[in-house]
Amino acid sequence: MAEPAVLLEAVDLTKRFGKNTVVDGVSLKFAEGRLHTILGPNGAGKTTLFNLLTKDYPVDGGEILLRGERVTRLRPDQISRRGVGRSYQITSVLRERTFFENVWLAAYRAERGGTVGLWRDIRAYRTTAEKSRQVLAEFGLQPFSDRKAADVSYGDQRLLEIAVTLATAPQVLLLDEPTSGLSQRESERVKQFILSIKGKFTIVMIEHKMNVVMDISDDVTVMNRGKVIASGSPQHVAADAAVRSAYFGL
Fold it and tell me: Residue 237: CB partners within 8 Å, gap ≥ 6?
């Protein structure tokens, strides 16, 4: 069986803040249709790596390749339009807007590249509205369509944020701690939601809950102090001595 194509690649990526090197020569390949989880203790550089991949932070060294093309100098909006979508560690949905409006806004921006005349008869833009309804229906969120994000649980807001990211039609989906702050029941819902989209996208996920990581990951990379210390299958990484020392203190 042929190896899946590499969609997104970090090549010797480096980021410094003053004298501190937060991401130190990280090289990783994220393959088509696979779910790749990045683990590490607090301060390991995981979210900073995401910020480099989306160009929220400028790169101090190394390259970013998307489908083999160098995209290191592109702006964040250009990276997004090339097919890299992201959810954040702290939910960024519009709390006073409905589920439908949040998804619609993301789809509208992705399709039209701007927000001119945004809230004028929102349902009149048929193509965008239909796409928004499809996203909500596909992931079981249609019953929440007319509910404001502020009126639902934090877990449901996390699901909405992932749906909002999916509305931009990404090929690579970056999820930054999607179960952070959630109860066990809410975490299970988010896990099942991610499983439902697994294989449809290349998913790169930062996650701390080991049961989630072991249940849904194809590949796992562990970072510590800005460097990659292990990478491989979940079982291989869990048994790695350096990982057990850095992550579990064993």
Answer: 39, 220, 221, 222, 230, 231, 243
